[in-house]
């Protein structure tokens, strides 16, 4: 019995020693074997990684405009057989490309895309439909100019926030500045006419009282050589600003900006 | 169906002609030629010393990449803003919005990397190409395929290994875009066993032919104002 216990103890010790030896030899083998993770080089670190996808911002302050790319008729409806409201040329009377404000789009009666645009014609506020192919690429602006005829004040906003406020002079009685929604068509500078100050913006607004005016009586927003008359009701329909204000406006207001007069 | 033909997807039916002229034939013809003559051509190429590749700097690659990403980002962004994407079914809308968000992220990071060396964004005129869901989808397929070909062509040319790694990161995503776009268009997402790479100059020529990149209209004048005063 005692001898059997001794033999059992010896057998157990031998088994433990064998297991321990196998285990240590296994660890040695692991050490000798190359680590697959270390054998392959790590990926090359990229010079840059794009961040998260950029979601589109709120579009409620965006207004769109495009220049006329091909002479075209503006129709009363998106249909080639609809009555013609006016014909659009390539240039403004001032020689710049002719822009139109984009109001809406729709597939026309001919199955092609049409665009409803604001027109620089009388009566003020006229709109018409043109084939998309008549226009160039869309341009977007996030500014808006409000002309307050009662307070004689211009307010420029960008993305809904006011960035400029300045006094204005507007049309005298009988030459009232027209009310409505218009847009900036071009920006003129370096001309020799102190009456208009250093910068003049052309708009799509027209004075019904000044149709015999050169180029048809378009309403401009410009500087002046009579800052003492600003604010006031003194012009033939144009919106006059003091020269420092019109220079500031020229820095902040892109062509295509909607102009709301009221 | 392998996908929309390049010929009928862009504004002036120009992209297809440009791509086919670049390849010297239609894609199918190119593949047929490659199948019969590919092995012999490869052996001949390996036997002679390689011609010096056209020199192109990493800066040029990045600048072109920025312009191309701006083209794509504007295409998707504009389609979303004018309502074309809003007119699409939910699954297609999600696809288009996702691709737009990715392309805008690509523009953002490349602009950051270039810093003051980034050039101003060009003006774009997509005409009718993003005005209807159908035209938009077909143009997107061509644009994504072209992006994959561009990245496949320029990535081996760049010198900086980090830039190579970054472009590969864009390439794989653009390949996913292309496959997703093809699936949306009802085309085979992976129609071939390999994709053709295109040289930067070839992609530039293809883009030029679309007339999508236009001169920005000059709205400033010097005429004496004829306004009512």
Annotation keywords:
heterodimer; A: 262 residues; alpha+beta; SH3 type barrels; L,D-transpeptidase catalytic domain-like; 2 domains; 8-stranded mixed β-sheet; 5-stranded antiparallel β-sheet; 3 helices; 17 strands; 35% strand; extended; B: 229 residues; mainly alpha; two-stranded antiparallel ribbon; globular; disordered N terminus
Could you describe the 3D structure shown?
The complex is a heterodimer of chains A (262) and B (229). In chain A, 37% of the residues are buried. The longest helix of chain A has 31 residues, at 2-32. Chain A has 262 residues and is of the alpha+beta class. Chain A has an 8-stranded mixed sheet with strand order 10-9-8-17-12-13-14-16, with helices on one face. A 5-stranded antiparallel sheet of chain A has the order 6-5-4-1-7, with no helix packed on it. In chain A, strands 2-3 form a two-stranded antiparallel sheet. Chain A has helices at 2-32, 36-39, 243-252; strands at residues 63-67, 72-75, 84-88, 99-107, 113-118, 127-131, 139-141, 143-148, 153-158, 161-167, 169-171, 180-189, 199-206, 218-222, 232-235, 239-240, 258-261. Chain A contains 3 helices and 17 strands. Chain A has 2 domains: 63-140, SH3 type barrels (Roll); 143-261, L,D-transpeptidase catalytic domain-like (Beta Barrel). In chain A, a hairpin with an 8-residue loop joins strand 5 and strand 6. Chain B has 229 residues and is an all-alpha fold. Chain B has 7 helices and 3 strands. Chain B has a two-stranded antiparallel sheet with strand order 1-2. In chain B, helix 1 (15-23) runs antiparallel to helix 7, helix 3 packs antiparallel against helix 4 and helix 4 (90-114) packs antiparallel against helix 6. Chain B is globular. Chain B starts with 14 loop residues before the first helix and ends in an 8-residue tail after the last strand. The interface between A and B is large, with 67 and 51 residues.
């Amino acid at each position: 019995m005692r001898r059997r216990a001794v033999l059992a103890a010896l057998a157990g010790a031998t088994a433990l020693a064998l297991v321990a030896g196998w285990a240590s030899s296994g660890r040695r083998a692991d050490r000798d074997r190359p680590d697959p993770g270390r054998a392959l080089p790590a990926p090359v670190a990229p010079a840059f990684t794009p961040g998260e996808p950029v979601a589109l911002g709120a579009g409620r302050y965006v207004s769109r405009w495009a220049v006329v790319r091909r002479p075209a008729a503006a129709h009363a409806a998106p249909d080639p057989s609809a009555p013609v409201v006016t014909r659009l040329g390539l240039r403004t009377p001032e020689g710049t490309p002719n822009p139109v404000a984009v109001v809406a789009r729709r597939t026309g009666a001919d199955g092609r895309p049409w665009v409803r645009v604001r027109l620089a014609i009388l009566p003020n506020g006229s709109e018409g439909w043109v084939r998309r192919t008549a226009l160039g690429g869309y341009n977007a602006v996030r500014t808006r100019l409000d002309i307050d005829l009662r307070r004689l004040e211009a307010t420029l906003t960008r993305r809904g926030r006011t960035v400029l406020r300045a006094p204005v002079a507007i049309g005298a009685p009988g030459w009232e500045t027209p009310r409505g929604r218009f847009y900036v068509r071009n920006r003129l500078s370096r001309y020799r006419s102190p009456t208009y100050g250093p910068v003049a913006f052309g708009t799509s607004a027209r004075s019904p009282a000044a149709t015999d005016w050169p180029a048809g009586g378009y309403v401009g927003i410009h500087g002046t050589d009579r800052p003492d008359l600003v604010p006031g009701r003194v012009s033939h329909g144009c919106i006059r600003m003091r020269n420092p204000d019109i220079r500031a406006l020229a820095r902040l207001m892109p062509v295509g900006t909607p102009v709301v007069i009221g | 169906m392998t996908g929309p033909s390049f010929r009928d997807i862009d504004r002036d039916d120009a992209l297809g002609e440009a791509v086919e002229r670049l390849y010297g034939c239609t894609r199918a013809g190119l593949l047929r030629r490659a199948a019969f003559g590919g092995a012999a051509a490869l052996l001949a190429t390996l036997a002679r010393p390689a011609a010096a590749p056209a020199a192109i700097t990493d800066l040029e690659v990045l600048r072109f990449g920025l312009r191309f990403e701006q083209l794509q980002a504007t295409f998707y962004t504009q389609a979303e803003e004018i309502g074309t994407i809003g007119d699409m079914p939910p699954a297609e809308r999600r696809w288009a919005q996702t691709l737009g968000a990715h392309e805008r992220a690509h523009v953002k990071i490349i602009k950051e990397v270039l810093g003051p060396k980034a050039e101003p964004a060009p003006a774009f005129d997509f005409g009718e190409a993003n005005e209807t869901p159908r035209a938009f989808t077909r143009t997107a397929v061509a644009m994504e395929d072209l992006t994959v070909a561009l990245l496949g062509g320029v990535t081996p040319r760049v010198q900086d290994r980090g830039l190579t790694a970054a472009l590969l990161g864009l390439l794989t995503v653009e390949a996913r875009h292309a496959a997703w776009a093809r699936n949306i268009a009802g085309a085979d997402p992976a129609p071939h066993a390999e994709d053709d790479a295109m040289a930067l100059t070839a992609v530039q020529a293809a883009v030029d032919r679309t007339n999508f990149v236009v001169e920005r209209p000059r709205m400033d004048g010097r005429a004496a104002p004829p306004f009512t005063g």
